[in-house]
Amino acid sequence: MKITTLALAAISILQLAAAQPYGKRRAHARDLTLDKRETVVVWVDQNGNRIDPPSAPAPEAAAAAAAPTPQAPPANAAPDSGTGNGIVYSPYNADNSCKSQDQVNSDFSKMTGYSFVRVYGVDCNQVSTVLNAAKPKGMKVFAGIFDIDKVDSQVQTLIAAAKSSWDSIHTVSVGNELVNFGTPPASVIAAVNSARSQLRAAGYNGPVVTVDTFVALINHPELCQASDYAAANCHAFFAGVDASTAGSYVAEQAAAVSKACGGKKTIITETGWPHQGSANGNAIPSKSNQQSAIDSLKGSFSSDPGNIIFFTAFDDLWKNDNGATFGAEKYYGILG
Predict the structure, then answer these.
(1) pLDDT tens-digit readout, 177-203
(2) What letter does residue 77 receive in the DSSP assignment?
(3) What is the β-pairing status of strands 39-44 and 7-12?
(4) How far apart are CA 235 and CA 214, in angstroms?
(5) pLDDT band at residue 79, thresholds of 50, 70 and 90?
(6) Nearest to 334 by CA among 294, 280, 277
(7) Which residues touch 243 (CB under 8 Å, ≥6 apart)?
(8) Is it the case that residue 58 has pLDDT exceeding 70?
(9) DSSP state of 207
(10) How far is CA 167 from CA 124, 141, 170, 205, in A?
(11) Inter-residue contact 256 to 218 (CB < 8 Å)
C-alpha cells in the first residue's frame, strides 16, 4: 500500500491491544505504588492502520549518541541456565520483615524443576540466604542491584556475599524497569558499566544486564547494547489476552526485542499470571487460568526453557494493590 500521509500518535498502552499495557513491577521495592500505564509512539497511515516506523539509526549509533559507551561483554557472557526455567523469589514476610535462613530454606524445598532463581536486591542478607538455599539444589542465582543511586555500595554488598560462589551466579542485573518509570537511559547505562567494572575486578565474569519492560527495550535498544544480553519483563495478563495464548504473546514480544536489539539473545526475566484479582479484558485471574498460562508459556519456550523466568514462586503479600494492578499484584504465586 502506498503511504501518502504519516501521523505520529502517542498512544497509551492501556488503549493499544497490539502492545502490552505495561508499567509494573518493581518487585523488590516494598513501599512503592505504581501506575502501569506507559506512553509509546506508534506510526499510522492516513487510515489509522499501524505501519512500521521510518528507518532509525542502528542501535549502536543511538546508544553512542544517547548514553555512555557500553563496555564490551566477556567471551562467556551468555548465562548457563541449565535445563529448566527460572523463577522469581522475594524473601519478605507479609509484614515486610525479612525471612530467616530457615524460612528461605523451607521455601526452596518447595521449588522443583527450576534451574535458577531471580532476586532483585541485596537487602535482608538475601544474596547469602538465597545462595545457601539454592546451591544444595543445584540452582543458580540471578542476583540484582536494585537502587542505582547506591550502585557502588550495593555491588560491594553483593561481592562480599557471593565472591566465593561466582560459579553459582547466573546473572547480575542492575535496576528493574527503571527506564519504564522515567530514569534516563544514560543513567542506567552508567550504573551498568560501573557495576560491571567492579564485578570484573572481584572475579565475576558472567553476564551483567539491566532489566526493563519489553516496550522500554524496543524503544531504547541502547539498553540492550549496554547489557550482555537483552533482559525483558513481559506479562501477557496486562495485554488483556486469554491465558491460553500467553506463551505465543510473550514469545512474539521476545522476538521483537531481539530484532530491535540487533539480534541479541533475549531472556524474558519476568512473566506469569495472577490467580486472584480483577479481570483485564479477556485476561481473567484464577488458579485454572494461571496454570493454563504457565503451560502455554512453557510450550512456547520449550526449545530453550532457560530463556524464561516465571513470576513468582510465592504470593507477595507484603505488596500494595490498586486499580492499576487489577487487585492482583499480590497474587502471582505459583507455589503458594
Answers:
(1) 999 999 999 999 999 999 999 999 999
(2) -
(3) antiparallel
(4) 9
(5) confident
(6) 294
(7) 236, 273, 283, 284, 289, 290, 292, 293, 296
(8) no
(9) -
(10) 22, 10, 8, 9
(11) yes
Strand ranges for the chain from DSSP E: 7-12, 39-44, 85-88, 114-118, 140-145, 169-176, 208-213, 230-233, 266-272, 308-311
Backbone angles phi, psi at 23, to 5 degrees: 175, 15
209-230 in b/e burial notation, b at 16+ Cβ within 10 A? bbbbbbbbbbbbbbbbbbbbbb
Where does 163-244 show beta strands of DSSP type E? 169-176, 208-213, 230-233
Pick from 91, 93, 96: which is nearest to 127 by CA? 91
Confidence at residue 160, expressed as pLDDT on a 0 to 100 scale: 98
Spatial separation of the C-alpha atoms in residues 129 and 14, rounded to whole Å: 38
The residue with cell 498502552 is 13
Three cell numbers written together for 189: 547505562
Q: Quick check: 300 and 251 in contact, CB under 8 A? A: yes
pLDDT computed for residue 120 by the predictor: 98
Average pLDDT over residues 239-262: 98
Q: What is 282-327 written as a DSSP string?
A: TB---HHHHHHHHHHHHHHTTT-GGGEEEE-SS--TTS---GGGTT
Please enumerate in sequence order all residues whose Cβ is within 8 A of that of 288, keeping only pairs 6 or more positions apart, or say none. Answer: none
Burial class (CB in 10 A: 0-12, 13-18, 19+), 246: buried
- Is the per-residue pLDDT at 262 higher than 50? yes
Q: Which residues are catalytic?
A: 270
The 3-state DSSP class for residue 130 equals helix
d(CA 331, CA 329): 6
Element (DSSP H or E) covering residue 199? helix 185-201
Which three cell numbers, joined as nine digits, stand for 22?
505495561
Give the whole-angstrom CA distance, residue 253 versus residue 269.
12
Cell reading at 268: 524474558
